[in-house]
Amino acid sequence: PLSKLPHVGTTIFTTISQLASAHNAINLSQGFPNFDPDPELLKLVSEAYKKGNNQYAPMQGALSLREAISEKIERLYGTYYHPESEITVTAGATQAIFTTIAAFVHPKDEVIVIEPAFDCYEPAISLFGGKSVAMPLVGNDFKMNWSAFKSAISPKTKMVICNTPHNPTGTIWSKDDMLQLQEILRDTDIILLSDEVYEHIVFDGKLHESASKYPDLAVRSVICSSFGKTFHATGWKMGYCVAPKPLMREFQKVHQFNVFSVNHPLQLALAQYLNDSQHYLNLGGFYQEKRDVFLNAIKGSRFKMVPSAGTYFQLLEYSEITDEKDTVFAERLIKEHKLASIPVSVFCKSDYDKKFLRFCFAKTNDVLDKASQILNSI
Ligand code: GLN
Questions:
Q1: Atom 3, ligand 1: residue with shortest CA distance
Q2: pLDDT band at 181 (very low <50, low <70, confident <90, very high)
Q3: For domain 12-37+281-376, which CATH number applies: 3.40.50.10610, 3.90.1150.10, 3.40.630.30, 1.10.760.10?
Q4: Is CATH 3.90.1150.10 the classification given to domain 39-279?
Q5: ipTM of this predicted complex?
Q6: What's the 281 CA to ligand 1 centre distance in angstroms?
Q7: Start and end of every Aminotransferase class I/classII large domain (predicted)?
Q8: In CA terms, which of 86, 198, 240, 271 is 20 to 30 Å from 370?
């Protein structure tokens, strides 16, 4: 057959964004800010281009950036990753995730995917002949059922993919969740792919629980993160991943022949900016304010909400408004009310019949205001 991915179509982000623009709708669907990075960072980027850094970076990434990443992780989470052998700069976190799956998933291996799950995991698993095993989060608060998770592990389980703060639900894992995960994976050879791209966007005084904080998780983890999310620059497609040396060696075997190395001037600018600025430490507060502007404005609406605990996404539950399936309601919201969101069911392969839409609040207040007016009128 021609297709290796017969079950895969166009991503929901492309589909919804096209529909939103065709109907002139306010777009709170795909997750990206409608504002620019810090002017200081933009200045460093343009200087880096002018300083003649326009040829290949080292395969693993510019050393200054790997050092800055290593320092940041050690400062925040207390774990040291060696810049020489345990860090790779990637073309966004999606590439890091894809490369990790490519490097470790053999045909017939099982990969446990916690659902709803960001849409890039499953196609990569399929492409390399793996089988994804869906582990649904339960209830309208999307909690982990750790005993079900434990039962889903089989001798074929090669990898578990987890994601905190969680896209699309805006939930975060607690220390207790991490300890349960650590306990269940102890004495196995299972690799943990930890998608932590929203690590700096956590609210209400809570802490991000990185897999790197838990020694028995860290030894088996490839942790992916994103400069796009952290620095309001999703269009740069810059991210990184860290892992202990034996895992990173395998990761780099794939990376060097797929990507080889990523944008050099951007890496040098990001290194400088990470060293000069503590911007990312204020990111939680920055987005918490946006979440609150949005939630306060729609308090009187018929949508039900549990405030997002992290990420720049807010789920709204709409069962009081309609019985429609989320994909149908999301489409109607665009066409009739000119507001675009993401139906959560598209992130699920397993049975799912909850009534939630995902809204991105990484937007200026004028846009959040307009969206709120629409939501209040429904
Ligand atoms: N992470 C973004 C989101 O969830 C989308 C990224 C993408 O379109 N691939 O909206």
A1: 31
A2: very high
A3: 3.90.1150.10
A4: no
A5: 0.92
A6: 23
A7: 25-371
A8: 198
